[in-house]
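Researcher: For the annotation table, I need structure tokens for Methyltransferase domain-containing protein. Please keep the output clean. Sequence:
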Amino acid sequence: MKEKVAAAFSAKAHTYNEHARVQRRASEIFLDYLKDFSGNLPEAPVLEIGCGTGFVTKGLITLSGGRHHVITDLAPAMVELCEANLRRDFPAASMDFLVMDGEVLRENSSFGLVVSGFTIQWFTNLAQSLASLVDSLVPGGLLALSFQGEGSFTEWKKICEKENLPFSANPLPEGQVVAQILQKTGCRVTIYSGRMVESYPSPKYFFRSLGAIGAGTPLSEEKTDPRLLARIMKAWSRECEGRPAEVSYRVYFVFAQKPEDAAATRTKTILYTPLPLVVAETLEARGWGEGAFLGNTQSVKRTEEKKGCVEWQTFPDVFL
């Protein structure tokens, strides 16, 4: 499956920038939030997982000062294109470019900052991989993630429900699950969640755009019947009545700070025993976890060993 995803994104490397409007805008917001966390980073190298064509990478080079950067992607053509762009724009920067699976880190990896933009939704073992990324941080290091999550494509899903058709979008991570995983590592986690809405000339154009960036790659081994997609587009177009098709993306920006004190981090065994979690009423998602949630939430008393905590904030809708 990983080979299939890598091949899809490599094949679309040169059409990606034209169609990836949500990804580009999300990277700008992500970098704005990252500025608030980048001032006190440890003096250690920076790792980027899933560089793509370099939307996040360019801002990351500027934010993280003169640190060495290890810039990676699963898709060889994406790495090649990103390197060409970055070598041109930042000739003096210290950078290595690697074709690498972000779920398989080198042993004894040690970074002050690990960044991944719109990539973890392609992970096959989310819990283990996020825990591994936290492990790769030096004490006080930061894991910064953006991702498209559960709750995206509601318009597409509603059409399928209305027409009694299967909703064939790939499964996406739940924000609450990511929060719980990172909290269990002992990190202090800050999450910003919100909705981005892109307008497409038609449903057909939306599906074409997914394909043009490689994101139309199905993770299921089952083949999608093209007649099913045609029925969805026909019903959705009828629903639009000549208007553009709006598509919602549920987007998360996550910042997990590893404790300075190594003794406060988790053990190697990761267990996820759900405990009640109170989440802000404004959030659409509901989930489970443990520890103290801050911001627009209520605290849960902790009786176990020291755990991380999560602050959750929402941002206004972004329309493209």
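Researcher: And a one-line annotation?
Model: The two ends are 32 Å apart (CA to CA).
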